[in-house]
## 1
Amino acid sequence: MDPIEEAGRQWSARGWDDATPGMLAVTSIMRAQAIVQARVDAVLRPLGLTFARYELLQLLSFTREGSLPMTRAGALLQVHPASVTNAAQRLEAAELVVRRPSPSDGRVVVVSVTDEGRRLAAKATDALNAEVFTRPGLAPERVRDLVDVLRELRADAGDLG
């Protein structure tokens, strides 16, 4: 039995037919997110990383100089400034990034990945590629469909800038 389908049956039985498809979609997305999060956490936790910290390390590793202003990193990661600050603080405590004032504007904080941060980001990426990203839980021909559907949802929310 699929508990989400049963919830849909209960929704309809209570006369909420118009809301049933949306409830099924939202509940399914939330459950799928929990499943994916557990898989990602199982890979990153032994490396001492969360997904937020991994994303910041990887983002910095993608840049030419290995550095970005904190505000720009937060915008690119689409997270609240407090979230990027928290991730950077934790990574700095682990000596995976350093934060310092911008030489051109002391009000701006620049975060830079260290050599050890680059190594850990590469190791985490190899593990995520092998254990999660190449096996997302869907047939390969369905993965693009999922990405396209979720992009529509993100676009409707104004997430695409």
## 2
Amino acid sequence: MTVLRSIALFVLAALAEIGGAWLVWQGLREERGAAWIGAGVLALGAYGFVATFQPDPHFGRILAAYGGVFVAGSLAWGMIVDGFRPDRWDVVGAAVCLVGVAVIMYAPRS
């Protein structure tokens, strides 16, 4: 159950961080305005809180593992929200990152 909770928290963190960055991007680059930027800043702040709920007590480990989730999540966000089509190297790279997440977070430790 701890692994499932951790994975759910990684997904929630990715939605907050990637979504927040996307909202800021839309507000500035696509000129949608201050409300979009403000919503993005709030979402980015929420990301910082979500990470604290991970069951592992080590900030560095959680943030390192989240980096891999961020890579894969960003590509998925681009596909779903922006119609981005990753090439095979994007997919391979994201898979490598997710393997890294699994090793960092869920490998047996003594």
## 3
Amino acid sequence: MAGKFFDEWQVGETITHEIRRTVTETDNLLFSTMTHNPQPLHLDAQAASESEFGQILVNGTFTFALMVGLSVGDTTLGTLVANLGYDKLLHPKPTFLGDTLRAETEVMDKRESKSRPGSGIVTFKHRLLNQRDEVVCECLRMALIKGSKA
């Protein structure tokens, strides 16, 4: 499903995104090294095993990026002008290697753009859940979206 135009969104609308993703060691290792994050909890199995978690934690910025990415096809693919910001980013539970993650999105607010007639700002609340239905990440995303197909 392609993204929706501003006019098509309704406050309160909720989407359960179909694509799920199992996080691998390679995902975590590549993302951590690409972003120059040397945190031993993400990269050092021995150090992580000695932590309170007892195992490697998945890099939280990967978890956040995956959550947004899983939502794009159903929310803003082809209709996005720009992401304006993210707010209230939380990681209520850790993500571990092998967790299978899925995303949900709820439309919290929408308003016409003052600077771009015909476009509007939609505030999405994204949630990322693991295979145990625990929320592992959530945030608000403010997106400037094209007004209509015309």
## 4
Amino acid sequence: MAYKSDETLTVLVYSHDRNTREQVLTALGRRPAEDLPELDYLECATHPAVLKALEKGGVDLCVLDGEAVPAGGLGLGRQLKDEIYGCPPVLVLIGRPQDTWLAAWSRADAAISRPVDPVALAEAAATLLRARVAKRTPAVH
């Protein structure tokens, strides 16, 4: 998939915990896969900050901490899917593998168990970002 050299993708990372946000940024790095553009990040520590960022547009992926307090990423993810037209893909960080049913309830597009596995997170994010880029790129005939 070709992209412009100056193109970037924006990833919103939500958690009340600065360390969790840093783990996500470190795991994804500047580019989670060679075939994707570089990433820009929007770090959000509160539910209102996420909503404000999404209202502005331009977000290509949301990574939400399911264990965030006071507003968990699972409930927030469901709200985003219900209320945001053209909601970007949502990847949730769940507390344990048994919580995948909660991720499904939240309408998340993908879920990764904590602690964050950098390889699993990068692979899931890359898959969601490729699909996002493919949707907005016109087909060339």
